[in-house]
Amino acid sequence: LIIGVSGTALQKNVSVGSPAKVELTCKLDENSNLKNPQVTWKKGSETISHTSKTKNSWTIQLTISDASHLASYSCILKGEVEVSATFHLQVPKIEGKEKPIITYEGDLAVMVCKTEYAPMNWTWSMSNGTELVAINPSSDANKFRIKRQSANVNRLEILKLTKEDSGVYWCEAVFRLGNSKRRFELKVLSIFVPLKPFIAVVAEVVILVTTITLYEVYSKNKGEEGEREFDQIEQL
């Protein structure tokens, strides 16, 4: 729905995981001041014709049979002002945690991928320099577990973490029209890392108590020496 305000450029993502017929419609708001606009549809920079028109509504029908049909389709309305709307046809994106996963040695790390539509297959891999190494739980069941919680949710578990497990992991969903990837960053810290602040505080307390004790001993000794000197003066 296009309001018709000058400079408006609407954007909409449309997920298409498998071959399908797609209908895209631009409809001008009834209260818009833009009257009888000239309408142009484009695929990228290529002009294409719309297949149907009603009052203040323009539609194109597409047959998405392969990845070449996944593109940006725009309707451009020109009149007293120019407004547009763009549909980005793409394979479904993978949802997942964006921030680095921070955990400790010996713990369990969990990474979860989710898509809007069920892919044909899921794969997991780990970056090794410039290469990706596929993760195969069957060859190392004591280290990795992959669970397909549902058709569109996949889960990787890394067991008994060590510092060597730190790095970048990739989740990939395979669709008939293409693949979609998600990046995860894992940081494995030493178990002593969370103890460092506590150890630092304990060390400061020990130093402070030791300093106070030494000062008290020193003050006591000085006091005893002063009393002995006073006694000697009285005797004299």
UniProtKB/TrEMBL annotation:
PROSITE patterns: IG_LIKE (PS50835)
Pfam family, one: Ig_3
The Ig-like domain, residue ranges: 17-86, 92-190
GO biological process, one term: cell-cell adhesion
Keyword DNA damage: no
GO CC field: membrane
Keyword Hydrolase: no
SUPFAM superfamilies recorded: Immunoglobulin
Key words of the record: Disulfide bond, Repeat
Protein name (database record): EMB protein
Native source species: Myiagra hebetior
Gene transcribed to yield this protein: Emb
